[in-house]
Design brief:
single chain; 114 residues; mainly alpha; elongated; Peptidase M20 dimerisation domain-containing protein
Length: 114
């Protein structure tokens, strides 16, 4: 951009820290159970987003155990994770608890069918 505009400004970008990316198989049985639990409690399909930006340990767990790892958050985008004003709404706390219970029920159904 600077060279196209013949700007005398300089820009230097540095990566001070980082982590290896982690990608999970969303067709894994635990993901299917989680989708069912989310639908049951929240009456909508989950957003299958790739965002584990502050949890680099997920890839480490997956590599060491050679098992599928899943993050099942109950917070909202505006909860201010890791900040001094981190919060969780009462709605998400109560329904998140219901979702975890529903998830355990769905997982038990998968294991019972084997």
């Amino acid at each position: 951009v600077y060279s196209n505009r013949r700007s005398p400004n300089k820009l230097t970008v540095s990566m001070l820290m980082g982590a290896m990316p982690w990608i999970a198989n969303i067709n894994d049985p635990q993901y299917i159970a989680a989708k069912k639990a989310i639908r049951k409690v929240f009456n909508q399909d989950p957003d299958m987003i790739r965002d584990g930006s502050t949890i680099p340990i997920a890839r480490v767990f997956q590599n060491i155990t050679r098992k599928s790892v899943m993050m099942l958050p109950i917070g909202a985008m505006d909860d201010g994770e890791h900040s001094q004003k981190e919060k969780i709404s009462r709605f998400n706390y109560i329904n998140g608890t219901k979702m975890f219970a529903s998830f355990l029920l769905e997982i038990s159904k998968l294991h019972a069918s084997k």
